[in-house]
Design a protein that fits this description.
The protein is α/β, with parallel strands linked by helices. The protein contains nine helices and eight strands.
């Protein structure tokens, strides 16, 4: 996650692959393109990935191609507004059907984590922009589901080590407020949300790394009523994206900016 790579490999998969996301770009219009096995040709992030034990030349790359002012926008392409390298200015990324399917599959393969990440900002930008309409549509039913889970499973939560007074007095409100709030969340709040997600998941914890919600939900939904019943797969899929949204940007180019004296000493 820190270098912007999602591992799409699953047991029994005939086409295992890893996908890398391009970094944040200057303001402008961009077209998303998949370049097979081209991540190694980029700068900075592949070096870090190799240092971590990966093989950058094996990774596919979601490349952002700049569009000129007179360029024709592909028909039916989805427009995503993302942050740019300039403060208070944004970029627009156009995503065609094939690349949209890859993003959805990557979302279903986001690894489960009990806390927010130190994350590659290009990955975060694109994932959040793509998923935001879904987060908005399911915000109220997810908040209600998590709040109700606290009262319905209070003894199980206490058995897992949560403080009795916290469970009875504040946990439900904190979980619901996090879903209905803004882009910021404390470490404690993240742990509350993921703790409830783990409780509601019907299966082994390792299975939380793979969901099916995003690949089965390509159409942007209408806002769902608060009483909508959510499956464990949907709950976990949405929580994983909330963890991405709450994560801290990691500038993977930072070690190129360090003073030479730091390396010498």
């Amino acid at each position: 996650m820190v270098v912007g790579i999602v591992n799409r490999e699953t047991n029994g998969s005939n086409k295992p692959s890893k996908v890398a996301f391009a970094g944040r770009k200057p303001p402008g219009r961009w077209l998303l393109k998949l370049l097979p096995k081209r991540f190694g040709a980029q700068r900075a992030a592949p070096d870090l990935f190799n240092l971590l034990g990966g093989l950058a030349h094996e990774v596919d790359f979601l490349f952002r191609e700049r569009l000129t002012e007179d360029a024709t926008i592909p028909s039916h392409a989805r427009a995503l507004q993302v942050p740019s390298l300039e403060v208070d200015r944004t970029s627009v990324i156009y995503v065609r059907d094939d690349e949209e399917a890859i993003i959805a599959d990557c979302l279903d393969h986001l690894p489960w984590s009990p806390l927010a990440w130190s994350i590659h900002r290009g990955l975060k930008d694109l994932v959040v922009a793509y998923a935001q309409p879904f987060l908005t549509a399911y915000r109220e039913p997810l908040a209600r589901t998590l709040a109700e889970a606290v009262s319905e499973h209070s003894f199980a939560l206490q058995h897992r080590g949560w403080d009795t007074a916290f469970v009875r007095e504040w946990m439900a409100e904190q979980a619901a407020s996090a879903m209905l709030g803004d882009d910021r969340a404390s470490g404690d709040t993240c742990r509350v949300i993921t703790g409830l997600g783990e409780l509601l998941w019907q299966g082994v914890e390792s299975g939380m790394d793979k969901t099916t919600f995003w690949t089965n939900s390509r159409e942007i939904p209408q806002v769902q009523p608060a009483g909508t019943k959510l499956s464990p797969d949907t709950i976990v899929a949405l929580i994983k994206v909330y963890m991405v949204r709450w994560s801290r940007d990691f500038d993977y180019d930072v070690y190129h900016k360090l003073p030479v004296t730091l390396f010498v000493t």
